[in-house]
Specification:
Number of helices: 2
Distance between the termini: 48 Å
Order of helices and strands: HEEEEEEEEH
CATH superfamily: Cupredoxins -  blue copper proteins
Largest sheet: 4 strands, mixed
Number of strands: 8
Structural class: alpha/beta
CATH architecture: Sandwich
CATH topology: Immunoglobulin-like
CATH class: Mainly Beta
């Protein structure tokens, strides 16, 4: 009995934070609940390392992918296909900028903060369409 208990405790310790990881669902929508067009809902996600983000193809014509240069050092970029759901497990702490490629210029963007982090000073540097930049700034204002 004691050996089984010890084995169970050891297994739980080995699993670490993965045992407590969350799956957070994000919808890709033509129209959000507030009437805004071409959105991810929620547009901002606070996650922990090991959490999985599931992008749901709620409306057709969307994808979810990392915007060039908008991910933490050491993190892997991801690119979902149009009209398909994608699940991404984020293990590297930092701030991730996600776009819907077909609707990026229309401002279809979202921000994911993993862990207890600050927004990098250069997060919005580079070419970011005006509407997308406005939405990123709004998301980060509440961070």
């Amino acid at each position: 009995m004691i050996r089984k208990l010890a084995a169970g405790i050891a297994m739980a310790a080995l699993m670490g934070s993965a045992a407590f990881a969350e799956t957070i669902e994000v919808q890709m929508l033509n129209v959000g609940t507030d009437g805004e067009r071409m959105v991810f809902e929620p547009a901002f996600v606070q996650a922990q390392p090991g959490d999985t983000i599931r992008f749901l193809a709620s409306d057709r014509g969307h994808n979810a992918e990392i915007n060039d240069g908008m991910l933490p050092e050491g993190a892997e970029a991801f690119e979902g296909r149009i009209n398909e759901e994608i699940e991404v497990t984020l293990d590297v702490e930092g701030v991730y900028g996600v776009i819907c490629k077909p609707h990026y210029a229309m401002g279809m963007v979202m921000t994911i903060a993993v862990g207890d982090v600050d927004v990098p000073d250069d997060f919005l540097e580079g070419r970011v369409p005006r509407k997308a930049k406005e939405r990123f700034e709004a998301q980060l204002a509440n961070f």
